[in-house]
Every structure is written in C-alpha cells, then in structure tokens.
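User: Could you go from structure to sequence for me? I need the amino acid at each position, not a summary. Structure tokens:
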C-alpha cells in the first residue's frame, strides 16, 4: 500500500468520524446489544463516510493509495492490489492434528461414545493401541496410513462421516496443511446468487508475513478476468478458510464460473469458521455475524460499511466515477480477511489445543 497517501486519508476519516461522535449524531452500540443487520444509525454513519471518501478521493486512482498492478488474462485485464503485512505465525501444527485423530476411537465403524470410553478404560487409549485388537485392527491400519501420508481428503471424509461440522476434530485437520498452502477467502457481490462478484479478497500466509491480495472488478466486464485470476491464485492452495463460505462464497464463485462457461472449480477443502464460531461464542454473544465476533476479538475498523450497503457503494462508485466508495468496500473486505486470521488463531487455541 502507498503508505503516506493511505495514512493521510485514513487519518482524515478517523478525525471526521470522531467529530461525529463528539457532536452526538450517533452513539456506538455495546457488545451485547441485539444488532439488526442495518440500523438507521449505521446507515447514517455509512452515508457520512461515503461523503468524506468522495471528497478526499476525488481525482485519485486506486494505485495512488494501494500497491498493485494491472494483470492481463486471456479474457481481459484485472486490477490486482497486493500488500504484505508482518504477522504472528499461525499456531497450526501437524502434531496436534494427528493427536486428535489418534485419540478419537469413534472414527472406527462400530465404536460409539460408550464403547470408546470402555476401550480407553481397558487401556486402548489411541488408535495405535487397537492395532492388536482382533476386531478393530483392519480399520485402524487404513486410518494410520492416511495419517502417515497426510491424506487430507480421506481424513476429512472420515471425520465428516461421524462428527458435526463444528466439532474441533474437523478444525484440527487444518494442522495437516502447510500454512503456506492455505488461503483465506472472502468475496463482495452485488447481490445473492445471480449478481456479479465485484471484489475477491485473499490472504496467504508466508514465512514472515501475510500477503493480502485483492482482485478488483473496476467495471462489471472485469468480473470474468477476475475469476480467471482467482483460479490462478489458488492453483497451489490446498485449503481455504472462509466465514460462511460453505453456504455462500464458494458456491457463489462456482455459479459465476458456470455462468461464464469456465471449467474451473474450487476443489480445495473449505474450513468454514462460522460453525466453529457458533460453537465457541454461542453462550455469550447475541449472534455470530463476523462484525459481532470482531467485537469479542477487540477489532476496530478505521473505514467500515455494513455488508448490506456494499452494492449501493459500488453503484455509487460507478455513477460518480470516484474511487471513494470502492475504497470503503476494499477496506471492509480487508478487515474481514484479517479478522478471519485472528479468529482462526483464537478457535485453534480454544477449541483444538485446549479441547485436546
């Protein structure tokens, strides 16, 4: 990101929004309030934010504020914005993933909770202990071979057969993936199911940093090249991390692939954090929308708009030919992605490590 330009803009936005608080034009809502998807106050705040951004971004281009490039594809050009951020290493590790598999005897057909307890009291603590058992040995060998090979699809199918999607063992499988082969994914669209994708956001862990990438659809005709660029970005990725991506993001992208007659498909395993967040936060949060969970993670946004207003902001960007509203969408998506990273770290520590 072009640091000086961006900091100047962000500081102006902070100052003006802080002034609104002082003037009493709206009140911040508490952590435990019941939040409807879009309140009158939130809409008023977003309109004020849009006004500031239209003024401050007049005559500027996205490449004035962000580091990026225009990338050519066989179907046209797409704007790719990219930055690298120092970040603590993800706490994922294979040893923990293996421990969850090996200690869960219920992965074997014919073993339920009661039988598992009885076997463990008899000294069969892990699957390896059952290699000498005349009834279970043949099933254990198949699972151990999958563990040794790091055969994630086989292990995932096995876990999903016996456990709900929110069970910690399902998240523990992420320990079998090299962190540099993981991508956090979030998209912004003009609506549900049949509308265009207008922004695709990705975060990829690297050795020392996180690489944040945005494929920006500057006009609707660039959706196709953005989808092609996405397929290329995910070519070496083994696992996706999303929030409600199982129901929305991945299915939406597949629908747009089919709309354009593309043969691409997201075959990576999708670790959707929404079910795990519901499992962990359900006792003390009013809902598990990402904006709500962020409050519990102490996340503060500099520039933010409600998800429901993304289509309106994008249409304003097209109509005004001013990048201000589009900047708000990009920053909204960027924080969604960074919050996903924080949330995965929290859920791994609380559900996977402590649960083990």
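Assistant: Here is the amino acid at each position, in order:
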């Amino acid at each position: 990101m072009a640091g000086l330009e961006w900091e100047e803009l962000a500081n102006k936005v902070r100052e003006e929004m802080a002034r609104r608080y002082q003037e009493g034009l709206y009140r911040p809502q508490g952590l435990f309030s019941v939040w409807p998807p879009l309140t009158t106050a939130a809409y008023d705040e977003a309109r004020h934010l849009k006004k500031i951004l239209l003024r401050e971004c007049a005559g500027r281009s996205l490449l004035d504020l962000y580091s990026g490039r225009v990338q050519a594809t066989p179907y046209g050009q797409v704007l790719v914005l990219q930055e690298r951020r120092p970040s603590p290493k993800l706490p994922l590790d294979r040893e923990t993933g293996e421990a969850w598999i090996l200690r869960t005897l219920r992965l074997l057909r014919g073993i339920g909770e009661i039988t598992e307890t009885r076997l463990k009291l008899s000294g069969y603590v892990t699957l390896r202990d059952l290699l000498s058992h005349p009834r279970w040995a043949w099933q254990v060998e198949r699972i151990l071979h999958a563990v040794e090979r790091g055969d994630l699809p086989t292990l995932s199918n096995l876990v999903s057969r016996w456990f709900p999607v929110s069970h910690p063992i399902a998240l523990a499988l992420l320990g079998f993936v090299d962190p540099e082969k993981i991508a956090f994914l979030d998209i912004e669209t003009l609506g549900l199911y049949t509308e265009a994708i207008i922004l695709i956001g990705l975060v990829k862990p690297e050795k020392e940093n996180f690489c944040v990438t945005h494929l920006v659809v500057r006009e609707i005709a660039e959706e196709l090249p953005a989808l092609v660029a996405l397929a290329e970005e995910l070519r070496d990725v083994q696992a996706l991390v999303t929030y409600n991506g199982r129901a929305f993001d991945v299915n939406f992208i597949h629908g747009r692939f089919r709309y354009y007659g593309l043969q691409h498909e997201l075959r990576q395993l999708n670790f959707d954090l929404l079910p795990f967040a519901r499992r962990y936060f359900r006792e003390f949060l009013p809902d598990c929308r990402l904006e709500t969970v962020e409050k519990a993670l102490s996340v503060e946004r500099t520039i933010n708009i409600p998800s429901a207003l993304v289509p309106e902001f994008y249409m304003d960007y097209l109509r005004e030919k001013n990048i201000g509203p589009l900047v708000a969408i990009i920053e909204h998506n960027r924080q969604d992605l960074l919050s996903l990273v924080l949330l995965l770290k929290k859920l791994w520590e609380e559900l996977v490590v402590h649960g083990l």
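One structural detail worth keeping in mind: The mean pLDDT is 89.
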